[in-house]
Amino acid sequence: MATTWGDRVGGGQTKGAVNQVSGTSGIHSFAEEEKLAFVDWINGCLKTDPHLGHVLPIANEGESLFTSVHDGLILCKLINDAIPGTIDERAINLSGLNVFKIHENQNLAINSAASIGCSTVNIGSDDLMEGTHHIVLGLIWQIIKIGLLSKIDLLHHPELYRLLEEGETLEDLMKLSPEQILLRWVNYHLRESGSNKRIENFSGDIKDSEAYTILLDQIAPASRGVDTQALNIGDLDQRAELVLENADKLDCRKFLRPRDITMGHPKLNLAFVANLFNMWPGLEPIEEEVVIEIIEETREEKTFRNWMNSLGVNPFVSNLYGDLIDGMVLLQLFDKIQPGIVDWDNKVNIPPFRKIGANMKMIENCNYAVELGHQLGFSLVGIDGKNIYDEDKVLVLGLVWQMMRAYTLSILEKMGGGQRITDPEIIEWANGKCSGAGKSSSVRNFKDSVIKTVTPIADLVDSIQPGTIDYGLLGGDLLEDASYVISSGRKIGGVIFALPEDIVEGKDKMIMTIYAALMAVDLGHA
Fold first, then answer.
1. Is 18 helix (H, G, I), strand (E, B) or coil?
2. Digit-coded pLDDT (tens) for 121-138
3. Alpha-carbon distance values, 265 to 19, 28, 435 (Å)
């Protein structure tokens, strides 16, 4: 039997209080400390929401967290807290909740989570309605993490340039993942304090609380009364408690209990540090004479990254170009487009690579990715593995778009019995669907300017699931209309990555993915 990438990737078990539960797919475990941390975070960030009074505050004990997500409202609200504006809340079913409307809310939550880069592979609305422990906790963690890390970059914090090391450029800094930036941020403050302490991870290196004690003292205003008395305590549990008492003085006692520090819980310590940075970065602003040119990630780049991450690629893609240079993410995606196409055993160089010759191993993987693109009929004139390794933006974007398109169409082909689907056939289906529902909307192709009015897509959504669109909400600002229609499309089951701007600006490539996603919903109903 051919080896898959999933066979090669395993996950470690975090030590701590672990509960085991039996389900239809076997026994799964979850860490009690994660549940407690997430309950505290949700209660804090959503406490003023007017629609959640029936479930908040969530109790720490028992099954409260898992039953609270049943109607989908908490997950939808948590997504918007993480990445504001992801869900148009007019599309959420808030009242008269029956099984059908709750399913729609869960569809909206799952598909919106995918659109911000959460891996939603094997997550269904029933899993969330039933409060399946490991799935609920896994999805909540992804949403929280994406929100915490979303602004840890030079665009939101130009003062991060102070973390540059000797010989580095801003481009080097921009290639670092948020986790790497946070490690460097902690070490910067440790160095500024005069300490020789340094950390390389958020697990073993923070167990003794020394780094946290110094970090909090460095970033805290003098008026907050933070001190380093914890360093005088030998008992690590007591020292960890003093750390958290200092964090409380900064309104940052989140995610951790003393044991989570002394046990080195990597997820929760990452969340704790990210929240600290977001509230108290402690970096001097840029001087006026310092000129920093920051290249902002484009909507297209972000959409491609989110699509990749939604499919569960490993590692998580933080930088569209830098994270593709070893070919591994691309090869995983080809395996999603056509399962079994990648010969993992004989043609892929599996990392980690030895320092000498590593670049050649990476380029070989990238060349293999280009070869697979040719096998699938991609137009790849003038591109080879070296272009991917060198981060040639134009050529990489061209390849990645064709991969996203091929994946989208592969879903339609599977649902349509293996028959290849063309763009004109999608258009013909859409027009027929609207006509059959008594709608007047009709489009010639994905470049048709009428699509910019949002009405054709609104009509298509309502034709697939009558009553979904409240037409009284349309007719105002086009971006707001597009936002509502995209959320409505996700609510009926559409895995839509496009943004409202893509519709209003007539971005035909992304518009095509909207229509294909909605066609997949309709085929699923057939």
1. strand
2. 999 999 999 999 999 999
3. 16, 19, 56
